């Protein structure tokens, strides 16, 4: 495996920013170093050859950025999170005539579909709209199709049961050509679109924002910028959901939220 050094990685970050405008400088270095080294090994390149490749611009640099970003999730990942959303958030939001949710960093759409199922079982789906965004158009294209392998669905079904789902997960998809295809009625209230948390701005006001397992890839300065974006995207008394390894600490917005669930890092905007 090709192993880059940190000083080489910094030069690569600068070059990608100059070519594409995409800035990796806020991402955690160990993760970037592993991914860049893996990219070079996979494509049998050394660093000078990578520079020549990405300097073509266009698809070459775009594909490199896609492989450098993280795009993995599961349906009903962390089942206790969805139990808490049902009992502590949806019971609060049920009084709203319209509900807007934002899944930031949605990967292939697993959490968006999970949230759609949760809303449907709570009787709130028809007045809800889920915005699911990611940096990668490749994974968004997959998310829009709503197609998953049957092997993954076994894991997703286990998560769903642990999340105290009211039915069987198989009620929400059909099988075609050995793939699981999510119900069209679930997809109609989900909007999948491109959004870069590190560079793009506020695009709506939400009652709930889920940005789980995304902050861990940013450094402190970048996290603060993203927290500002999430704060400004939430309506008053809206809910912010982070991953189990993430926290509002050092965000600069600690006083603007109250803790709903300290273990799951669920917060409510209070000022």
From TrEMBL:
Positions of the CheR-type methyltransferase domain: 1-248
Q: What GO molecular function annotation could you give as one example from this UniProt entry?
A: S-adenosylmethionine-dependent methyltransferase activity
Please name the InterPro entries in this protein's record: Bact_Chemotaxis_MeTrfase (IPR050903), CheR_C (IPR022642), CheR_MeTrfase (IPR000780), SAM-dependent_MTases_sf (IPR029063)
Q: Which residues form a coiled coil?
A: none
Write down what this protein is called: Chemotaxis protein CheR
């Amino acid at each position: 495996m090709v192993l880059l050094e940190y000083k080489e990685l910094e030069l690569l970050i600068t070059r990608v920013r100059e070519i594409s405008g995409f800035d990796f400088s806020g991402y955690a270095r160990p993760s970037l170093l592993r991914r860049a080294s893996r990219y070079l090994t996979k494509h049998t390149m050394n660093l000078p050859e990578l520079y020549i490749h990405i300097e073509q611009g266009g698809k070459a640099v775009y594909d490199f950025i896609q492989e450098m970003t993280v795009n993995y999730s599961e349906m009903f990942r962390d089942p206790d999170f969805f139990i808490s959303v049902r009992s502590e958030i949806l019971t609060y939001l049920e009084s709203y005539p319209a509900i807007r949710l934002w899944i930031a960093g949605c990967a292939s759409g697993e959490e968006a579909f999970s949230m759609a199922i949760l809303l449907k079982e709570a009787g709130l789906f028809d007045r809800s709209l889920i915005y699911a965004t990611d940096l990668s158009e490749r994974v968004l294209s997959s998310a829009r199709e709503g197609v998953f392998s049957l092997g993954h669905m076994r894991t997703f079904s286990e998560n769903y049961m642990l999340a105290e789902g009211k039915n069987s997960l198989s009620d929400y998809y059909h099988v075609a050509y050995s793939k699981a295809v999510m119900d069209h009625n679930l997809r109609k209230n989900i909007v999948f679109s491109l959004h870069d948390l590190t560079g793009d701005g506020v695009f709506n006001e939400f009652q709930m924002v889920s940005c789980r397992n995304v902050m861990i890839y940013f450094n402190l300065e970048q996290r603060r910028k993203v927290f500002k974006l999430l704060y400004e995207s939430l309506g008053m008394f809206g809910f912010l959901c982070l991953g189990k390894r993430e926290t509002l600490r050092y965000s600069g917005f600690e006083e603007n939220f109250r803790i709903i669930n300290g273990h799951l890092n669920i917060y409510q905007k209070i000022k």
